[in-house]
Design a protein that fits this description.
ten-stranded mixed sheet, 2 helices, mainly beta, seven-stranded antiparallel sheet, single chain, globular, Jelly Rolls
Length: 251
């Protein structure tokens, strides 16, 4: 039996038995064609799991003075009566991922400052403080999209940069991803969607489908390959930040 005929025969058998309905898309053989081009996907790829139930703070640890679950969102709020002396995090206690993708939506007030920490540790003198990589967020979008290492090496890549961190000097800019002001135009005053891709020493921040920053971290004594996930309310004026649809895919 020649190969093309065998493929047609198997396809007809699968169709007649209805087996094509039971085969997951990822399991079906993909044969590239010269006309094929990369394409956008609709929804999350397989493997993402929710880490926030939208109703309670189950699995999360934070100061209840600042954090609550409300209307499907994880809400962090600082009022005039609860101004902070140091940044306060709510920490996901479901694991310490190594290589992963993380997706989450956020909305923040214009004077707010927040961020998503990952591969981070809790400070020894503050159980609601963290040190580690941060996908930055602020209401004025001065810093949103950059990679800032909280209580560590600070600015690893600003928005619009691909950098190489080697230690002993400032991070090296390898390439421009776009002008920071142009990239900021993709950020809305309402809900925005963050997508983090963290594999080995490569840290990618994507916001609303646009690449914001990339870090290649070769600073061996100071980089981290696993750690906690948390989100922040920042020292400063009263503010509010909301997160929803936290989904994690460990790689």
């Amino acid at each position: 039996m020649n190969i093309p005929y065998r493929r047609r025969f198997l396809a007809s058998m699968i169709g007649s038995l209805g087996l094509h309905k039971a085969i997951p898309l990822a399991a079906q053989e993909y044969v590239p064609k010269q006309s094929d081009r990369p394409e956008l996907t609709t929804g999350d790829e397989p493997g993402f799991k929710p880490i926030f139930d939208g109703k309670t703070l189950d699995g999360w640890e934070g100061d209840p003075k600042y954090w609550r679950a409300e209307d499907g969102a994880l809400v962090g709020e600082v009022t005039p009566e609860t101004l902070l002396k140091s940044n306060s995090f709510i920490i996901w206690r479901g694991g310490a991922p190594k290589d992963f993708e993380l997706r989450a939506d956020y909305r923040i007030t214009s004077n707010g400052n927040s961020g998503i920490n990952y591969r981070s540790v809790v400070l020894p003198d503050n159980k609601f403080g963290m040190r580690g990589y941060q996908a930055d967020i602020d209401g004025q979008n001065r810093y949103t999209g950059q990679n800032y290492e909280e209580r560590g090496r600070l600015f690893l890549a600003v928005r619009g940069q691909m950098t190489h961190v080697v230690g002993g000097r400032k991070p090296i800019v390898l390439s421009s991803l776009g002008e920071p002001k142009d990239l900021a135009s993709f950020i809305t005053a309402d809900w925005n969607s963050y997508h983090l891709i963290v594999r080995g020493n490569i840290l990618i921040h994507i916001l609303n489908g646009h690449l914001m920053s990339v870090v290649i971290d070769d600073d061996a004594p100071h980089r981290a390959f696993e750690g906690l996930i948390g989100v922040q309310v920042h020292v400063g004026p009263p503010m509010k930040v909301e997160y929803r649809s936290f989904r994690l895919k460990e790689l």
